[in-house]
Design goal:
By secondary structure, the protein is α+β, with helices and mostly antiparallel strands. It contains three helices and four strands; from the N terminus they run βαββαβα. The chain has one domain.
Length: 92
């Protein structure tokens, strides 16, 4: 299965959408979904993850949604460059 290449913001939005879907269990209305963090490509061809402390720490459903997205989406290199460029404008 080929992965779709997304920016960090696109991945964040997709995970957020899935967690707030009408059939998702529990109330996650106050939850903040963070941007994914890039890492070297692992054995399962994943190159990003999201820190669990940014979500409900013991929520297995949240972890399941993140893992599904990690299998589907590849974090683009451009996302890292865009974030660095955005930070330079914000602090410049």
């Amino acid at each position: 299965m080929s992965k779709r290449v997304f920016t960090a913001e696109q991945i964040r939005q997709e995970v957020d959408r899935r967690l707030r879907a009408p059939l998702a269990p529990g109330d996650r209305s106050a939850m903040r979904v963070s941007l994914p963090t890039a890492h070297l490509i692992d054995a399962e061809e994943r190159n990003w993850d999201m820190k669990e402390e940014d979500h409900c720490r013991h929520d297995q459903y949240v972890r399941q949604v993140i893992e599904e997205a990690r299998r589907e989406f590849f974090l683009s290199d451009a996302a890292d460059r865009d974030e660095i460029i955005g930070d330079s404008f914000a602090h410049g």
